């Protein structure tokens, strides 16, 4: 089994000191940078866009995991590849032709991810799971950091793990929203491979230690 990956969400960083927070993640035991792009249409919030991602890319020394909470993500696939995204995750609910979108992400040289809103059933991925590198299970309603974790996530993660095994797929399971040291271990036991953590990391007094602690308690 591979070690659980920890992906601090830059949405909770200090945007006036972004370079400082990026260097912190570089130095820490974190595995990925999780970057939330929101358009104010798919979700009721606007985060940041291309110039900020470009600035992050310049300093980030780890995998850049971009989570698009936008409508019509196909319009921007090549742009995100050019900006240095390693993983590009689109929302199931935002894609009319999901299979085509996944192929386009891979053709642009990135890993292809699909995020599911809390109400979206895992079985909807049955016919496309083998084409997905990463499923991001939303454990809050997307749009904001700092929300409370939705407990039904465990059931979804277990169902997703079963689906991945039954289809012999090679898909990672990422959990996004409300992750803390209280639920991290149980999420990994349910089948999670990657844990996104925003507020829990950046609002803590010693983020490097917080990341190290998450890493330690999620050892498989
Ligand atoms: C929510 C975002 C999350 C968010 C997580 O829409 O997709 O990545 O930044 O933040 P926390 O860990 O604070 O719930
Ligand atoms: Zn996210």
Automatic annotation (TrEMBL):
Q: Which Gene3D superfamilies match?
A: Aldolase class I
Q: Has the keyword Metal-binding been applied to this entry?
A: yes
Residues at which a divalent metal cation binds: 34, 36, 67, 176
EC numbers, comma separated: 5.1.3.1
Any one Pfam family match given in the protein's UniProt record, by short name = Ribul_P_3_epim
Q: Which reaction does it catalyse?
A: D-ribulose 5-phosphate = D-xylulose 5-phosphate
Identify the catalytic residues. Answer: 36, 176
Names of required cofactors:
a divalent metal cation; Co(2+); Zn(2+); Fe(2+)
* Pathway stated in the Swiss-Prot or TrEMBL entry: Carbohydrate degradation
The free-text cofactor remark is: Binds 1 divalent metal cation per subunit.
Superkingdom, according to UniProt?
A: Bacteria
Per UniProt, the keywords (alphabetical) are: Carbohydrate metabolism, Isomerase, Metal-binding
Q: Which InterPro entries match?
A: Aldolase_TIM, Ribul_P_3_epim, Ribul_P_3_epim-like, RibuloseP-bd_barrel
GO function terms (MF aspect): D-ribulose-phosphate 3-epimerase activity
So what does this one do?
A: Catalyzes the reversible epimerization of D-ribulose 5-phosphate to D-xylulose 5-phosphate.
Hey, which family's this protein in? Answer: Belongs to the ribulose-phosphate 3-epimerase family.
UniProt-recorded name of the protein: Ribulose-phosphate 3-epimerase
Q: What organism does this protein naturally occur in? A: Mesonia sediminis
């Amino acid at each position: 089994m591979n070690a659980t990956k920890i992906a601090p969400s830059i949405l909770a960083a200090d945007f006036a000191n972004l370079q400082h927070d990026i260097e912190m993640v570089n130095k820490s035991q974190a595995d990925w940078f999780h970057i939330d792009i929101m358009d104010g249409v798919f979700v009721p919030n606007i985060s940041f866009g291309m110039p900020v991602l470009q600035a992050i890319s310049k300093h980030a020394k780890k995998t850049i995991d971009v989570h698009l909470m936008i409508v019509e993500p196909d319009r921007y696939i090549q742009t995100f590849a050019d900006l240095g995204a390693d993983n590009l995750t689109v929302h199931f609910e935002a894609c009319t032709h999901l299979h085509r979108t996944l192929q386009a992400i891979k053709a642009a040289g990135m890993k292809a991810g699909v995020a599911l809103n809390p109400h979206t059933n895992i079985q909807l991925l049955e016919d496309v799971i083998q084409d997905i590198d990463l499923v991001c299970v939303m454990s809050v309603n997307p749009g904001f950091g700092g929300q409370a974790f939705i407990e039904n996530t465990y059931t979804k993660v277990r169902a997703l793990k079963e689906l991945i095994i039954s289809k012999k797929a090679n898909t990672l399971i990422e959990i996004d929203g409300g992750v803390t040291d209280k639920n991290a271990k149980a999420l990994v036991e349910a089948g999670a491979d990657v844990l996104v953590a925003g507020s829990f990391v950046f609002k803590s007094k010693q983020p490097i230690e917080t990341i190290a602690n998450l890493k330690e308690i999620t050892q498989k």
